[in-house]
Amino acid sequence: MNEFDLYPDDTGGFDVRVDGRFLRDILSEAEEERFPFISLLRRSLSPSVLEMQLRRFCGDAPGEFYPHRVWLYFCPVCFDEGCGGVSVNIQTSGEHVIWSNFCFDSEPEEGETEQGLLEEDDALLEVGPLIFDKTKYLAAVTSLGNDLLGRRRI
User: Fold this and answer.
1) How far is 45 from 86, CA to CA, in rounded Å?
2) Distance (Å, whole) CA 79 – CA 75
3) Hey, how many other C-beta atoms are within 10 angstroms of the C-beta on 29?
4) Residue 143: what pLDDT?
5) Taking Cα atoms as reference points, which of 146, 140, 136 lies closest to residue 51?
6) Where are the alpha helices (DSSP H) in the chain?
7) Rounded Cα gap, residues 151 and 5, in angstroms
8) Strand residues in the chain grouped as ranges (E)
9) What pTM does this model have?
10) pLDDT digits (tens, 9 = 90+) for 100-140
11) What is the band of 83 on the pLDDT scale with cuts at 50, 70, 90?
């Protein structure tokens, strides 16, 4: 089982920490180069966008392009999903939250399916699956949401 938490990062956002390491650093090692994207969890997001992103982390809202895929990172220059980023499949079941199928991703083309996305060279096969304790995971997401959204329920 992996440890999950959310911490401020050096880009001005909040990043996932897995077993005490920023996920962005784990992805950089897997790619053998500095990871160019920034976290979608940012103070600068409107409250409604931030709340939706946190709900996606909790499994309470579908991903923007595919129901079970959640965007984690995006381009720091244009902040546009069409430019690309990284998404992950998030599943909640019983006592666990499972992150799998990390992938470089962009806005899908007409008729593109999640399966097609995962078959491309953009899959980050070296990372995951990550399995988190659901209670601790939800507590971390809720705590960040309370801090950023002024104690509103996610």
Assistant:
1) 18
2) 5
3) 12
4) 92
5) 146
6) 23-31, 47-58, 114-119, 134-149
7) 18
8) 4-8, 14-18, 21-22, 38-39, 69-74, 85-93, 96-105, 130-133
9) 0.84
10) 999 887 666 665 555 555 555 567 778 889 999 999 999 99
11) confident
Structure tokens, 73: 């990172």
Backbone angles phi and psi of 133, in degrees to 5? -65, 120
CB 62 within 8 Å of CB 90: no
Six-digit token string for 2: 């992996």
**Domain parsing of the chain, residue ranges:** 4-149
Is the dihedral angle over the CA atoms 77, 9, 34, 20 positive or is it negative?
negative
Q: Tell me the two tokens of residue 144.
A: 């960040």
Which residue, 16, 51, 50, 38, is CA-closest to 128? 16
